[in-house]
Amino acid sequence: MAEFLLILPILLFSVVAHEYAHAWTAYRQGDNTAYLLGRLTFNPIPHIDPFMSIIVPVGLFFLSKGTFTFGAAKPVPVNPKNYRHYRRGDVIVSSAGIVMNLLIALASAGIFIVLGLIGRSMPDAEWLITLQQMASIGISLNILLALFNLVPLPPLDGSHLVYHLLPPAAGARYQAFGRYGFALLMLAIWIVPSAQTVLLWPVARITEVARTALIPWTLAAIP
What we know:
By secondary structure, the chain is mainly alpha-helical. The chain is built from 9 helices and no strands. It is globular, with a radius of gyration of 19 Å.
């Protein structure tokens, strides 16, 4: 339970920042839909979805006995027809959330190092170890969010990149699949455990490389 209390605020911030990135880039590309709906904000309240932001993360954490959790905020509504350049705008806006999560992962690594340097002069500060654990969670969780959203399955962000590579008719059918895509992906992960292993393998490898690189600044063993 204590570990989940460390994970939850980082997860909420990460998914809110992901959606904020979509809203901000959409606004910059000429679409003010998210802005008018109050979604161009870091305030978590307009972004929180009771099911995906709370019930799913809590359920996954306890069902997996603390080995895995995941969540999402409400998707930011956008109108690609308002973009000054439709295709370029759609690619930029769709990629923005992934880029944001990668930036948060890098920032978390930087914070981890700073905390490690501070800890050398404050060896008995247990709170620094806790903050490093949160920074470590920030790295792995945001790598997970970035790679998960790259999955080319509607309505995930990676599907927009594939859509623009398809002929118009095939692209329309591919997008129409979006209403079922996420539910089918979750069902596949639930029914076929190996699907989860495939999805999490690159996350685990990248996280392992990051943690190995951060060993010189680690104050204690990071779970």
